[in-house]
Amino acid sequence: MTDYSNPACRDPSFVEQRRKKGCVVFRLNLIDLRDKMSFLLVLLLLLAPFHSSAEAPSPVLAQVGNAVTLPLEPWGIPDNIHVNWNFNGGTLFSRNPTASSNTQVPTNWQGRVSLTENFSLHISPVTENDFGTFTCDQHKLVDSKMTTFKLYEVKMPTLPPKLVNDSLTLSCEINHEGFNLVRPTVRWIGPDNKIYHGQTSKNKYTLNLLGVSSNHNGNWICEVNYGAGRKLNAMSNVVIVDLAPSPLDPIYTSDSYSNFPIPCFFSSKISWATVNATGVMGGSWSFTSLNGSAPFVLLKLHLNPYPVWKIPPNTQGWLMESGVKNNDLGVTISRVSINHRGSYTCSLDFSLRTSRRRVQVEVLQVISSAGKNMYEGSTLNLTCTLGHPMPPDLEVNWKSPYGSSLSILSLPHLTELSIPGVRLKDSGRWACELKKNKTVLATATITLKIEKAPVNIWLVVGIIAGILVLILVLAIVIFSIRRRRKVVMHTRRKRRFCCCKNPQPKGFYKT
Fold this sequence. Notes:
mainly beta
């Protein structure tokens, strides 16, 4: 075997001579050589220190109770990257691409942290203990990248409920100690989607509003822009206690309707505990009739032990007593009559003001001029009325009973209906529908009973008596005539004396 360690063997002339002399040359296997080099490379990676590039902490703002994402820039192929997230020096989350599962998340973070597709850390919801320094160490082979985040808190205090026309002050405070590189810009977005601009004092931003309304009820957003395209929307819910606006149109019902509701609500869904926090002192339902008489109270609101509507003493009301449920202050008419036409006012009394809402109730009624019982052949007169002239935007539609002789006719859209010569099959329920834009507002009905005209027995007796009297008179006349004739005939049968031309005076004469 040739000794290649000898310098003479490495001489070109020696090699040529060796070839001529038949020296054996061993060729190394390229595959074995590659395996050996890979092993040496792995050994060098284990022994050599990692080369890392550190960056300055990147500020991120968050609000307690909301979610936040600590964003990482895409780096490398995700399937080959090891990821380690740390919080204040302690391990938070680790990902090993070759392992079947990730490391266990600490108990206080379980269910709140997760990784996105590019290994950004998502926290939901954020707690008061989550503000601090987060580091993310990513490495693959000999390359590594470390990113540091500093999580700062944005505070928006919870405000007590407000009444309409109260003043409102919102504040947004950023706890950014050491975070002076970029001055944040702040603007406010209200529930009405309008943009507001407030005042700035160091790290505190405020917004003052005078005379709030129900449009200001809801979530207010403090939009903080703090550079590098980063933005935080901190939110605070503002509750404005107010009654919902009065209906623009009256509400309609019909005479004799049972359990008719009269609505009254808060402008938003709030609990009664929230209403109590505003200092509510009581409330009432009052009524004003159509004739303009003075209003009088039908129900009073009792607050303890729980809110309930009750009829005041010595009051004869037609509104039913009921409890207040959530944001519903509505009441119910037990049975509607035409006396219930008018204006109903729902009131809530607070320490400094009173909120009122008015509801106009219209009662539809059908009136028959002849009452509910009629005789066949008489004229039917029906009137559909609200107790006052019908507004021009309302339409009346009549419906006759099933099987009526008028059921196939198109009844006119008039408030007054006149039908001469009704029949027995016209008996039944007549309905009057009140419509607006093809929507039925209310339906009033009346049930008519049509009968044949009854026979008067005294009239029959009178007729018979008259006939008998007439017969009797005729008999008497005939009898009188015949009697007179008999007298005349009897007179004609008596002797008659001769009448001389020269009558002699009475006396004796010589013959």
